[in-house]
Structures are given as structure tokens and as C-alpha cells.
């Protein structure tokens, strides 16, 4: 089966601007999770979508937002980018249980 | 509060030596515990989960509720075990999100 796919693989943005990251889950998976992996901080939970609804949100400011589409793919939007937002953003999907991860999108804010 | 602690950032051993990667957790309720592994240039993948009680690639982990620990062990390390290992927990009933530790890099030298 095709794994979780994320695009783009790398994105460079100027601080104050906006970034959109995309994720396609494994076929049949209805839940999508977003994590931020910043240097030295491990994986921090950002957002969880299931059946098109936001189910849970991590301790991140509102400028981190997203949505899940009817085909279960998802977008993560980061507004008013700050230098500290530079990180690897991982998407994961699951049906019920432990999720499978994508390769990530590396966001660099300059 | 949900928290996963991996006290070692780096664990360096020689091939054939025993390995123990430490993981302690705090959780108010019944958690499910996982170990994820990330090999160089590969995506994060599930290694094992405590409810399955499997041995994967020679690794085992036992959930110790008294000590709130879920240490990962292997009796004889191999060079191909070199990777980043993350301990994670979730709610046991009705999977929601994974809470990760900061990870331990295992380096197995010849």
C-alpha cells in the first residue's frame, strides 16, 4: 500500500508570511495527525483530524491551523511565520490505533 | 499530565553488547505504550507496542506499571540497530494522539 505522502518536501518562507503543508493519508485511514519535530524537542503534537473534524489540538498558538478534506487529505497552515517555526512537520494517518508516518515537510523560516 | 521521558540523548555500544533504552512515563489513567524507530533517511516507523507483547528485530519491552517504565531491550546489538528511538504513549481505550519522548540515538559500533 502507498504510504503517507507529504508535500512539499522542503519549503522556505520569509518570517511574517504564511506556509501551507499538505498530507495524503494511507487509503482507508480516516484520522490525520500533525506533529512538529524541532531540533532537540522531539515530536510535539499539533493537531488531530478525524472524519473531517478537528478532534484535538496541542499547545500551539492559533496561527497554526488546518483542515481535513472529504477525501481525508489534510492541510496544515502556519500564519505569521516566526523563525522558531523552522522544523520538520510530520503527518501521520491511522484508521484505529497506532499511526503511520510520512517523511515530513521541512519548513525553513528566514 | 501526560509525559514521556527518555533520559539518554545518546547511547553508544559495541556490536554484540546488550542494549537498554530507558523510557519513563506519567499518565493519569491506563496508557498504551509504543516504541517508534527512525533509521537514517527513513520515515518514523512503529517498532513495537506493549499490548502485542511481540519481539521485533530482537527487541522487547515490558510495561512496568509500578515503576511507570517501558524500557526497550535487546540482548545483542547489531550495527543495523543504529537509529533514533522514540518512546510514546496514548490512551489505552480509544486511541487519540501519541505523546512522544525526546528520543534516544543508539549508535552501535563494530
What's this model, at a glance?
With 110 residues, chain A is mostly beta strands. Chain A has no helices and eleven strands. In chain A, strands 2, 4, 5, 6, 9, 10 and 11 form a seven-stranded mixed sheet that branches.
Explain the layout of strands and helices.
The complex is a heterodimer of chains A (110) and B (110).
Chain A: E1 5-7, E2 10-13, E3 19-24, E4 31-38, E5 42-50, E6 53-57, E7 64-68, E8 74-78, E9 87-94, E10 100-101, E11 105-109
Parallel strand pairs in A: 2-11
Antiparallel strand pairs in A: 1-3, 3-8, 4-5, 4-9, 5-6, 7-8, 9-10, 9-11
Chain B: E1 3-5, E2 10-14, E3 19-21, E4 24-26, E5 31-38, E6 45-49, E7 60-61, E8 72-74, E9 83-91, E10 99-100, E11 104-109
Parallel strand pairs in B: 2-11
Antiparallel strand pairs in B: 1-4, 3-8, 5-6, 5-9, 7-8, 9-10, 9-11
SSE string of chain A, helix = H, strand = E? EEEEEEEEEEE
Main pleated sheet of chain B: 6 strands, mixed
Based on CA atoms alone, the radius of gyration of chain B comes out at: 13 Å
The profile of the biggest β sheet of chain A is: 7 strands, mixed
**Alpha-beta classification of chain B:** mainly beta
- Report the end-to-end length of chain A measured between terminal Cα atoms: 37 Å
Question: DSSP strand (E) fraction of chain B?
Answer: 35-45%
Helical amount of chain B: under 10%
Oligomer: heterodimer
Rounded to the nearest angstrom, the distance between the terminal CA atoms of chain B is 41 Å
The whole-number mean of residue pLDDT values of chain B reads 92
Shape of chain B: globular
| Shape field of chain A | globular
Amino acid at each position: 500500500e502507498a504510504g503517507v505522502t507529504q508535500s512539499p518536501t522542503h519549503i522556505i518562507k520569509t518570517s511574517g508570511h504564511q506556509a501551507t503543508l499538505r498530507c495524503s493519508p494511507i487509503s482507508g485511514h480516516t484520522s490525520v495527525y500533525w506533529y512538529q519535530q524541532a531540533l532537540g524537542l522531539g515530536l510535539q503534537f499539533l493537531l488531530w483530524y478525524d472524519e473531517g473534524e478537528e478532534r484535538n489540538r496541542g499547545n500551539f498558538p492559533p496561527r497554526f491551523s488546518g483542515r481535513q478534506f472529504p477525501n481525508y487529505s489534510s492541510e496544515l497552515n502556519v500564519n505569521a511565520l516566526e523563525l522558531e517555526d523552522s522544523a520538520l512537520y510530520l503527518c501521520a494517518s491511522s484508521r484505529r490505533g497506532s499511526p503511520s508516518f510520512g517523511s515530513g515537510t521541512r519548513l525553513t523560516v528566514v | 499530565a501526560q509525559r514521556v521521558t527518555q533520559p539518554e540523548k545518546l547511547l553508544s555500544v559495541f556490536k554484540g553488547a546488550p542494549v537498554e533504552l530507558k523510557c519513563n512515563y506519567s499518565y493519569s489513567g491506563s496508557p498504551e505504550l509504543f516504541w517508534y524507530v527512525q533509521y537514517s533517511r527513513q520515515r518514523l516507523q512503529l517498532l513495537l507496542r506493549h499490548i502485542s507483547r511481540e519481539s521485533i528485530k530482537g527487541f522487547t519491552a515490558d510495561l512496568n506499571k509500578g515503576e511507570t517504565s517501558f524500557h526497550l531491550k535487546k540482548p545483542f546489538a547489531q550495527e543495523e540497530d543504529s537509529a533514533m528511538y522514540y518512546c510514546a504513549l496514548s490512551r489505552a481505550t480509544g486511541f487519540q494522539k501519541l505523546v512522544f519522548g525526546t528520543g534516544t540515538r543508539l549508535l552501535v559500533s563494530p
